[in-house]
Each structure stands twice: as structure tokens, then as C-alpha cells.
């Protein structure tokens, strides 16, 4: 059961008028209730075909209740949140290893692919299949190649969570034994409830987030080398070495694998694997601070190189003090004091792995996004399919309402995004290309559709596979696979979308399952005849999936003045402009992150409009159990100004903001088929679970800060309406974590297409020039709190001189008035 279930924006969840196109997906782990902690789980390269809680897509009738309850452990949004002391992401005393297994496979001319060594223990599962994955097709034609694949454990999430809790309890018990004996002996209950230095809060938050994600995958990075030798059969020796890790940043092990595999060719013994295993697991990451999910969002959305540097400084200071304490208590000869350096870029943590007396520098990402595995380039993926399309546009001959949302000339990247969101079967084919390029395209596509908010893609992705595993592959609905065999292209029944990497073209299968007519599409066809209809939307009088209208190729024509109702053309133009201007990989990822966030928010508005409720949005309206109007001793009431603000319609709204009702209906109608395709997928139901957990962790739950910021950004508000918004924000944002929540709104407040300079605190700072004195001074007080915040100081520095001068004027005027006895001058 989820730790918290927020309320829906309306009373009842939506009821889908049509069933899902695909069966419920196979889980990544078997829910074995009788399993014990001592049982060693086995691993498999394909998800188990038994169902689990995390992969079954529930129907509307069995969707869990989303109403809030005071009996649940929910922190009131009005309760103060203290700033947490920095804690490491990977403590020194943690029992979790960086690398779990190291494998070596080779190709034998008589027996085929064989597994030579496994360290420290056999990995379990089908060793023959693992050996085949480690030795991809045509690998003998290349001197070196890389592959990536995932292994699924048959351990339930409850077992994983309980094991982490047991490890933490054991570490706390060991620490208590080292304390002075004058202190009373701690009981077992004290050990369970010990929250010293906020460790329990930070780790409980991580447990809450991980509780909805199912058992973690085991990521495998594999290196294949071919050594030509005339003294052996076929004139070459082919060997592969793989590292199996829980960390999704597995690309950091590439230089170590290069050194280790060369060493294994010289010394093909188990000791070579043991040396690598000990080296990587001795990597010290204890100075990498743990960030809250709000802080991770802020860091991912910013390119400031010293953001949250204070946390790294605190970690180093704590380590230095600990080293001094240890050296003073040690009676033996003192060792030279170790020096610690701060990172030059806080987005990455620098460490060193010593392998065979060779120091290998390693860079660890500080904040990890969902569905981001390895090192890939979105720019490379976009250019692969955008360049041929720009040079010679070719209309799609096969149309589908979920995919070609802008007609037959829909941009290929948009078609790929739509296919990922609507859970279509996708293959990336790279004939005569290294398997590493195919795997990189699959990993980039998963990150493209996730945006750091959605999940369910990598768990059903196969960065590399071959024809021998086609039967197992076809049993996985909505798979994303990378292949090099051209035979896949001729079997159109195996896939829904084929992405040809050598040619840069995308093809829709003629045998793709057609989309049924849904209530959402029918709603706009019947009740909004003046709005632009979704391209190729099913007609109520035609068969499902058949295009209607007089447009080109059976697509309905777009009304004049609405040349880009979905906004996809402008979005892709903005992305390609960023690539042309060489703004970097981070800028491109940020644009797709904002696109996914906007899509989620307009999907919630779509559900509210069509079905009367949305399961992907929640807030506490006035009168809810923890709203100010019904505050109790357990949930104290905030400031009086906030109580009055709830009665103001300018503050009580929620959701995405459009400049007009016509613009809202136009955009919802254009995106209807894409939204309906997404709401029947595993990523949609996963997001419902993730959102309920994230919502429970928000320090402010009774105001939609994003909605209020969007109003300031997009609407022309009057003096009183803007004053209500400014006063509500100032009265609500007080503590460190509440400022973090507001900064995350600033970070994701700028549109994916627009003026990139007008973001951050710009629209909040306009309140410094408001006609009302109380608004100006309240905004100045809020800006001052942000100005001294660890991350907020960078937002303050990004403000223009005019806004900073306005802040100085308000502060000085207030000081002069107070010195003059409170008289207005």
C-alpha cells in the first residue's frame, strides 16, 4: 500500500470507455510471499511473465482510493520543515556493493557462446542466454564493441525494502555501541525510531519513492574484444567481460573494463576478475551528498556549476572533523592527513578507482533522472532522424491517430515520442552498425519519453537482442528493442514502429493495431465542432482507426489560423535551433523535460474536462482535512492572509493555464488522441502511483504553486488579482523546503518554446513594482528568503539589475518608514 494517497481534483476517478489495447505487462520480479531474506534471488534477461502489483494496469473500477485521510502519516503543509543536515548517498558503512557480479564469456568454434567465469558467485538464470547477449552478432568483424542489457531479479519490492531497513537498523545499532557507556542503553524501539541528524527522514523519503518502482534492475555493461591470431581456429579469439551493477550510471566503468579485459587476455584466470571486483567496490562515494527530490529537480533543471556546493562543503567538513577525531584517538603513528577537493561542477562527483596501481578518474552524476541509463546523446538521436526529414520530407503512408498527430508530415521524433507514450512495440534496427550504436539509441529513446517524470520504459527495453530471443520478446507488450539483423524489417507483424538508424527513416507497420473510438475523441467531435479535430481521429460513423475529412491522405484539414494546433512544429523548430546554436545536451534534455511536464498537465486538464476528474492531479481544496479552514491542534492554521486568500478565485485555481478558453479547447482537441493513447499504458498508471508519493512529500499541498506562477506568466491580471497571488505565495513560502518547492516551480516554469531569458524569479520580482505597498514589502521579504537560500542565491544572481534595484528600493523605503515612526512618506 502506498504511504499516502492524495485526493482527486474531483470526487470520482475517470471511467475509460474502451479497454486497453495491450495485455498487462509481465513484471520484473515474481511476488513470492514465502521468500526469505536469506534466499538468493535469480536473474533473467527477460521480465517474468507472472503478474506483479507494479506492472498490472488496473481498470477504473479497481483503482485505489485517492481521498486523503488524517489517519495516514501525512505531514501537514503548515508544519515547519527544518533544513536537513547533509547525508551521503552511499555511506561508508553501507553493505550495498557498487558492482554485484563480473562475467566473462567467449566464443568457441565448436560449442558456440560459453560462460567462462562468474565472480564472486554464479549469477543464476540462463547462462547460455547471457553468454549470447555478451557476444552480439557479427562481433568478429570488429575489434571492439559495447553492449548494454538489463537483468530482472525475482525478489519482491517488499523484500528489497525490508532488507534496506534491516541494514539501516544494524548500522544504527553498531553506532550506538560505540557511544559512551554513560548513556542509557537503547532499546530496540529506540533503534527503529532513531532519527539522528535527519537520517531517517532522508532515507524514508527515498524508500517512499522506491516503494512504487518495483525491484531495481541489474544493469549490465559489456565489452567485447576480438584478437586476431593465426594459431587458433578461424584466426581470432573473441572474449567479452561484463559488469553487473545496481547503478544506472554504468558508463563510468568503461575505462576499467578496457583495462581489465586486456589484462584478462594476458592472464585468463579468476584472479583477474577478483582484482577488478575489489577495485570497483572500494570506490569511495561517501562524500556525495544525498539530495531531496525537490533539490534533484532544481539541480537537473539548472546548468549552474556550483549549485548546492554548500552541501559538498558540509560533507568535506564533516569528514575532516571525523579524521581529526580518529587521529587523536589513535595511539599509533599518525598518517598524513588526507586532503579533499570540492567538485568543479556539482552536477558530477569526482572519484578515483585504483586498479592494478593505475588511478582511474570517475565522474558520478549527483542527481539521477528516471529512465536515464548510461551515457547517450539525445542530440545524436534527434539528428539521426531529423536530418533526412529536413532534407527530403516523406509523408507517412500508414497513419495512426496515436502517432501521426500532426498529419502525414508529422516530425519523426514526434512520431517516436507518441509511440513511446502510447506503448507501441518499437525496434531500432542498425544493419552493419555496431551494437553499441543500437543500444545507445534505445537508451536515448527511453530518456526522451520519460523526461524525468514518467517511468516504465527501461524495464521493458532491450538495448540489444537477436532473432534467437524473438519468442520471448513478442511476449512483452510495448517493448523497445535494438537489433542489427535486417530480418526484423521484413516481419512487420513483430513491431508497430521501426526506426532505421542507417537511413534515418521511421516506418509505421501496416499491421499495427488500430485505435478504438474513445469517449474523449467523441467529446470533441460532438461538443466542439469549431475546434480543430485530431488528425486521423476515429469517426463515430467509420471503423476505428479510419481517417475522416477532406485533408491530404484522408486527414482532416486544419482550419485557417491554426496551422500548428498541437504545438509540435514550433517545439521541434525550437529543439533544432538549440542544436544548431550548439547550446549543448543539457539544453535539449531540458526542452523535452518541459514538453513531457506540459503533456502531463494538459492530460490532467483533458481528463477533468471530459471525464469530470483526473487521477494525475491532486491538491487540498478549502474544507479538506488539513486545509486552514478545518485546522486542528495536529494541523495548525497558517497566517490569516492565507485564510482570506483561499476565498479568492485568483488563488484557489489549479492545473495548466491557457490565455483563453478557446486556446484551451483548441489544444485539448488537437492532443485528444495522443492523451487517450497514453492513459491506457503502464507509464500512466505508474505515474499515478509516483504522483501520490511525491504529493505526500510536498511541503505545500493546499496551493498549486505552478498554477499561480503560470497565471503571473501567461495572463493579464488586474491589481487585486495579482496582489492575491503574490500575498498567497509570500504567506505560504517560509521554510527551507518550501523555498525548494517554489524554486522547482521556477526551474520548470519556463515554456519549452519561448524566451529563455524570462524565467526563474522574473515574474515573482515584478511584484516588487506592484502598486500596493503591502504587496511590494511581502514580495521583498520572500525574495530576501530566496536570496539567502543555498539554491535561491543563484536565482537571485540571474535577475537583472533593474529587478535587483527594485528590491533595494523597497527594502530601503521600508527601513526609512520604520525609522520615521511608521509614517508613509
From TrEMBL:
Q: Where is the composition biased (Basic and acidic residues)?
A: 156-169
Which biological process terms from the Gene Ontology are attached to this UniProt entry? actin cortical patch localization
Q: Where is this region: Disordered?
A: 1-44, 60-97, 156-212, 320-342
PROSITE patterns with a match to the protein in the record: DENN (PS50211)
Q: Which Pfam families match?
A: Afi1, SPA
Q: Where is the composition biased (Polar residues)?
A: 9-24
Q: What is this protein called?
A: Spindle pole body interacting protein
Amino acid at each position: 500500500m502506498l504511504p499516502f494517497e492524495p485526493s482527486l481534483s474531483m470526487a470520482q476517478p475517470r471511467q475509460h470507455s474502451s479497454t486497453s489495447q495491450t495485455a498487462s505487462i509481465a513484471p520484473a520480479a515474481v511476488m513470492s510471499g514465502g521468500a526469505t531474506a536469506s534466499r538468493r534471488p535469480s536473474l533473467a534477461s527477460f521480465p517474468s511473465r507472472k503478474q506483479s502489483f507494479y506492472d498490472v494496469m488496473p481498470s477504473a473500477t479497481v483503482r485505489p482510493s485517492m481521498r486523503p485521510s488524517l489517519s495516514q502519516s501525512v505531514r501537514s503543509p503548515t508544519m515547519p520543515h527544518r533544513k536537513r543536515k547533509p547525508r551521503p548517498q552511499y555511506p561508508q558503512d553501507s553493505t550495498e556493493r557498487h558492482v554485484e557480479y563480473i562475467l566473462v564469456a567467449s566464443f568457441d568454434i565448436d560449442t558456440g557462446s560459453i560462460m567462462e567465469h562468474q565472480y564472486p558467485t554464479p549469477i543464476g538464470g540462463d547462462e547460455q542466454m547471457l553468454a549470447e547477449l555478451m557476444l552480439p552478432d557479427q562481433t568478429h568483424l570488429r575489434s571492439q564493441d559495447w553492449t548494454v542489457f538489463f537483468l530482472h531479479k525475482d525478489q519482491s519490492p517488499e523484500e528489497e525494502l525490508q532488507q534496506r531497513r534491516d541494514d539501516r537498523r544494524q548500522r544504527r545499532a553498531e553506532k550506538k555501541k560505540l557511544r559512551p557507556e554513560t548513556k542509557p542503553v537503547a532499546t530496540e524501539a529506540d533503534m527503529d525510531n532513531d532519527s539522528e541528524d535527519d537520517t531517517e527522514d532522508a532515507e524514508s523519503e527515498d524508500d517512499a519513492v522506491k516503494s512504487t518502482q518495483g525491484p531495481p534492475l541489474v544493469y549490465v555493461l559489456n565489452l567485447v574484444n576480438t584478437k586476431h591470431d593465426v594459431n587458433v581456429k578461424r584466426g581470432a579469439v573473441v572474449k567479452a567481460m561484463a559488469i553487473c551493477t545496481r547503478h544506472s550510471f554504468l558508463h563510468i566503468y568503461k575505462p576499467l573494463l578496457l583495462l581489465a579485459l586486456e589484462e584478462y587476455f594476458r592472464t585468463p584466470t579468476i584472479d583477474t576478475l577478483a582484482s577488478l571486483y575489489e577495485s570497483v567496490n572500494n570506490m569511495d562515494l561517501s562524500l556525495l551528498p544525498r539530495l531531496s527530490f525537490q533539490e534533484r529537480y532544481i539541480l537537473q533543471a539548472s546548468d549552474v556549476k556550483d549549485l548546492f556546493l554548500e552541501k559538498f562543503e558540509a560533507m568535506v567538513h564533516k569528514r575532516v572533523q571525523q579524521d581529526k577525531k580518529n587521529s587523536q584517538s589513535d595511539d599509533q603513528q599518525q598518517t598524513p592527513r588526507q586532503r579533499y577537493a570540492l567538485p568543479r561542477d556539482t552536477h558530477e562527483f569526482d572519484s578515483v578507482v585504483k586498479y592494478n596501481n593505475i588511478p582511474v578518474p570517475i565522474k558520478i552524476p549527483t542527481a539521477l533522472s528516471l529512465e536515464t541509463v548510461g551515457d547517450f546523446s539525445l542530440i545524436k538521436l534527434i539528428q539521426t532522424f531529423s536530418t533526412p526529414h529536413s532534407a527530403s520530407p516523406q509523408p507517412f503512408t500508414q497513419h495512426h491517430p496515436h502517432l501521426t498527430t500532426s498529419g502525414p508530415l508529422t516530425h519523426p521524433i514526434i512520431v517516436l515520442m507518441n509511440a513511446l507514450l502510447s506503448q507501441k512495440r518499437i525496434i531500432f534496427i542498425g544493419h552493419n552498425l555496431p551494437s553499441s550504436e543500437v543500444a545507445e539509441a534505445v537508451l536515448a529513446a527511453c530518456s526522451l519519453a520519460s523526461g524525468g517524470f514518467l517511468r516504465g520504459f527501461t524495464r521493458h527495453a532491450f538495448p540489444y537482442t537477436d532473432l534467437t530471443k524473438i519468442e520471448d520478446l513478442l511476449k512483452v507488450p510495448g517493448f523497445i528493442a535494438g537489433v542489427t539483423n535486417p530480418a526484423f524489417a521484413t516481419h512487420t507483424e513483430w513491431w508497430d514502429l521501426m526506426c532505421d538508424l542507417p537511413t534515418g527513416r521511421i516506418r509505421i507497420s501496416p499491421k499495427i493495431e488500430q485505435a478504438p473510438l474513445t469517449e474523449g475523441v467523441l467529446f470533441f467531435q460532438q461538443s466542439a465542432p469549431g475546434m480543430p479535430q485530431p488528425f486521423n481521429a476515429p469517426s463515430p460513423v467509420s471503423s476505428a482507426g479510419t481517417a475522416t475529412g477532406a485533408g491530404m491522405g484522408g486527414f482532416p484539414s486544419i482550419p485557417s489560423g491554426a496551422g500548428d494546433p498541437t504545438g509540435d512544429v514550433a517545439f521541434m523548430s525550437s529543439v533544432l535551433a538549440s542544436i544548431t546554436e550548439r547550446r549543448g545536451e543539457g539544453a535539449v534534455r531540458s526542452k523535452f523535460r518541459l514538453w513531457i511536464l506540459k503533456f502531463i498537465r494538459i492530460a490532467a486538464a483533458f481528463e477533468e474536462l471530459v471525464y469530470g476528474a483526473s487521477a494525475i492531479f491532486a491538491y487540498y481544496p478549502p474544507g479538506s482535512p488539513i486545509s486552514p479552514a478545518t485546522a486542528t491542534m495536529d494541523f495548525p492554521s497558517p497566517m490569516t492572509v492565507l485564510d482570506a486568500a483561499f476565498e479568492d478565485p485568483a488563488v484557489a485555481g489549479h492545473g495548466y493555464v491557457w490565455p483563453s478558453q478557446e486556446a484551451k479547447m483548441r489544444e485539448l482537441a488537437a492532443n485528444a488522441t495522443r492523451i487517450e493513447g497514453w492513459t491506457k499504458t503502464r507509464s500512466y498508471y505508474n505515474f499515478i502511483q509516483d504522483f501520490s508519493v511525491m504529493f505526500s512529500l510536498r511541503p505545500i499541498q493546499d496551493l498549486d504553486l505552478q498554477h499561480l506562477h503560470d497565471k503571473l506568466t501567461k495572463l493579464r491580471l488586474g491589481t487585486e488579482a495579482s496582489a492575491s497571488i503574490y500575498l498567497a505565495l509570500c504567506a505560504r513560502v517560509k521554510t527551507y523546503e518550501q523555498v525548494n518547492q517554489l524554486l522547482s516551480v521556477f526551474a520548470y516554469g519556463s515554456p519549452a518554446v519561448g524566451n529563455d531569458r524570462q524565467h526563474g524569479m522574473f515574474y515573482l520580482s515584478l511584484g516588487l513594482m506592484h502598486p500596493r505597498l503591502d504587496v511590494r514589502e511581502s514580495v521583498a521579504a520572500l525574495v530576501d528568503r530566496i536570496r539567502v537560500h543555498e539554491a535561491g542565491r543563484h536565482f537571485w544572481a540571474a535577475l537583472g539589475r533593474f529587478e535587483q534595484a527594485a528590491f533595494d528600493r523597497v527594502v530601503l523605503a521600508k527601513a526609512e518608514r520604520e525609522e520615521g515612526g511608521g509614517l508613509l512618506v
